[in-house]
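Box S2. Input/output pair 1.
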Amino acid sequence: MGRRTDGTDEQGSGGIKGLPGPPSLSARGSLHDRHWAGELRSAVRCAGALLALLLLVDAAAGTLTPARAALWSGLALLLFLVLFPPRVTAGEGWLTVRGPWRSHRVRTDRLVSVRTTGSVGQSLVLRDAWGGRVQLDPRILIANPSLWLRLDTDARVAQTNGSMHEGRAALDHLSARVDRETALAVFKVSGMED
């Protein structure tokens, strides 16, 4: 049986409830963040709710004008842009992070360095031999083990061919986090969780 891009096979089974399903594959074999669409819907709902609330309060006070409606719409748009989730896509040898305005791509099989920045809101910064740079939240990789596996496999290729000089420790730390989260999901589904 064939696989569809939505993570279900032709009979509609999506795997074991609570565990990650099969990787999201497009026609070209790329992997995608499977939580991105839900996060985008949440950003739209938050911005829409703010706009509705502001318009409702302004209308109830009798002060709603076209200029104020445009101001509230701009504020809601600003909130949407702040909440807009980056879309992470990966394939053999590459990883792309797309924001609302720009897209950044790095060759993962030619990584030069991998670093973590920040202590509270950690980011993973990947740099390749051609100057490409992407920055992403490591929680995206933790929530999408297939994306993590693709990155880790390519990083090992970069390490083997000698291009990666810095970052194996950061990747090993992230690997331990992915393994821990996957094991917790298995325990939760099997009923072995405390």
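Box S3. Input/output pair 2.
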Amino acid sequence: MENHDIKRISVWSGPRNISTALMYSFAQRNDTKVFDEPLYAYYLKNSNAKAYHPGAQDILATMENDGDKVVEMMMNSSEKQVLFFKNMTHHLLDLDRSFMKGLTNVILTRNPSEMLPSFDKVIKNPTLYDVGYKLHMDLIEEFKKQNIDFVVLDSKNVLLNPEGVLRQLCEHIGILYDENMLKWIPSQRKEDGVWAKYWYDNVHKSSGFVKYKPKSEPFPKHLIPLLQESLPYYNELQKLALT
């Protein structure tokens, strides 16, 4: 298979989103190979996050730490016609972004009023940098300047209308929609990162995209300043999202 015939999809997600469910969705396609956060070890090695991310030492010990080598893998892998890379926006750090011209870049966001309390349960007192909203908008500005292909997904829209949004996403990528993307067997996947035991419990119990339910718990007071910082960026992202 020629490298230029391969569709390379990179999801640039914020944390506590539906990125793992989206990875599981694409993994149901016979023409697709999925990769779980290949830049995670690079991020941990080159930031102070290794001090507070669960399982950091296991991640550093079992994954490629060199970001340039990870990018080389992403751009040269050719096992399947469609390659799906689940990434986190903050994992990019200061990598040369030119490789993104060879990808379909998917920005995946979630309402911070719902995401922040969930993230705070694992990573205490997160910062604006940790949660990705400003990084998403910075990335979009760069995409526009460099004429790099991108599309925005809001997790709420996906959960409200998974088939409709996935059909639009597949059309944007240039691949046929596959109805198998809507369901999977509740279980772990071989592609799961070693951090799955800390983050993926709900996905492992799921058999598809769960029905959207608004959060009912009171919003934590200590996260209100971060919510106020995040909302302007999220509001801009929401305007661009597929529905």
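Caption for Box S3: The two ends are 34 Å apart (CA to CA). The chain has one domain: 3-240.
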